[in-house]
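seq/struct pair 1
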Amino acid sequence: MLDNHLYNLMNQLVEEHKSLWRIRNQYIGDAGDCIQCKEMWERLVKDKEDHIDELMGIIKVHVK
C-alpha cells in the first residue's frame, strides 16, 4: 500500500496529465482564431509539461 504522501504525488501527476490532454485536444482548438488565447493555452501546455516532469522526478525518488 502507498503512503498518503506518495499517493498524493501520483494523483496530482494524473490530474496534470488529464489537464494537459484537455488543453491540447480541446481548448486550443476551441480558441479558434484568437491568437491571444492560443498563446495563453500554449504557455499552459509548457507549464503542465514542466509540472509533469517535476512530479515524475519526485515520484521516482520516493518509489526507490
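seq/struct pair 2
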Amino acid sequence: MILPVYYWQLGIMLQSLHLQYFRSHEDLKIDFFDGCTLIVGPNASGKTSIIEAIHLLATGQSFRAGKVEEMVGFSAEWTRITGNLSALSGDITDEDAGEEPEQTELSVLLTRGMLQGKKTHHKHFSVNGINRQLHKMLGQLQTAVFRPEDMRIIEGSPSRRRRFLDEVIGSFDAEYLRSAKTYEQSLKRYNKLLETVRDNRQPTTILEYWERSMVKHGEYLQRQREQFLLATKQVSFAVRLQVEYKPSIITQERMDHYQERAVAAGHSLIGPHKDDFSVSCDVQDLWRGQLSQFHNVALYGSRGQQRLAVLWLKACQLNYIENQTGQKPLLLLDDIFSELDEENQQVVVKLINNHQAIVTSADQLVASFLPKNTAKLQLE
C-alpha cells in the first residue's frame, strides 16, 4: 500500500500556526503544506520568529531568548502560540486510509510575570485546551532546527557542541531536561560552597550533598549523550564520518579525587559541563573516506568539509529522534541555504524530501532548488 503523503511515514503533521503578540507578529495565522513550505521575506520580517515559535511548541524552550519577556510583543503583557497537529492514532492500516486524521492543539502562553494585575508563571502549556506541565506536552511534536549558527558546531567552542547534544536529547527526554537543570543548579551551589571551604568558613562536609546530586544527574546526562553519539554509527550518509565522545567523567570516586584541587580553584574541575566531542573524516579526500586519513575536521578539514560534517550531525539528529520516539521530526530550516555551496545544498534537499519541512529565506531564488511541490508564503 502507498500511503498518502499527507500522513507521512509516522502520521504527524503541523497543519497550522497562530501567533498572537509574539515578538513582531501581533496576529499571524499560517497554514502549512504537508511537504515543504518556504517562507520568504526581507530581513526583520519575522521569519526566524516563526521557526522559534514552532520549536517552542515542541520543546517549551527558545533557541534565541535569554528571558521569556523578550518574546512578548512590546505593547502586550502576554503572547500565545497555538499549533494544530494532525495525526493518525496507532499504526496506519488500509482501513485508516480513508479516515480523518486526529487533531491535537498545542498552546503556549508566555507572560511577563503579571497577567491582569496578578502575579503568574512566565510559561503556561496546554494540550487540547487542558493545562499541562511541560513534560506532559513533550513528545506531541518533534522538531529539528537548523540555523546559520549551527554551521559553527564543528569549529566552535565545546559549549556549542554541548548545547547541540542537549537540543537533540532534550527535545524528547523530559528526564534529561530535569537532570540538566538540577545538575546546573547543583553545580552553581557547589562552586559557591567551594569558595567558603577554601576560605575556611565551612568544612568540606558541606560539599557532600551537592556532590551526590552532581554525580547522580551528571551520570545520567553522560549516559544519554554517549548513547546518541554511538547511534551516529548507524546513520547512512553521503560520506563517511565518525565522532569521538570526550566526556569529563563524573563519579563519586573522581569527585573525591579532585576535591582538594577543586577547593583550591574555587570551581568544579570535572563533570558534563566540561564534555566535548570531535568529528573526523578523510581530510585529503572526503568522498573517498579512507580511515587511515581520518583526522579532526575542526582542526584539519576545509570549510566545506566542516559544513558537510555539520549536515551529517543534523542527519544523525533526525535519525535518532525518529528511532527514539517513533515520530518523524518536523525539519525547521532558518535561512541556511545562503551558508551552503551547491553540493551541500543538495544534501539538505535530500533531507527535506523525507520530512515535513519549513524553510525560511530572504532569497526568492531558494525556491528553484527546493522540491517542485513546495508551497510558498511571502512575508512583508
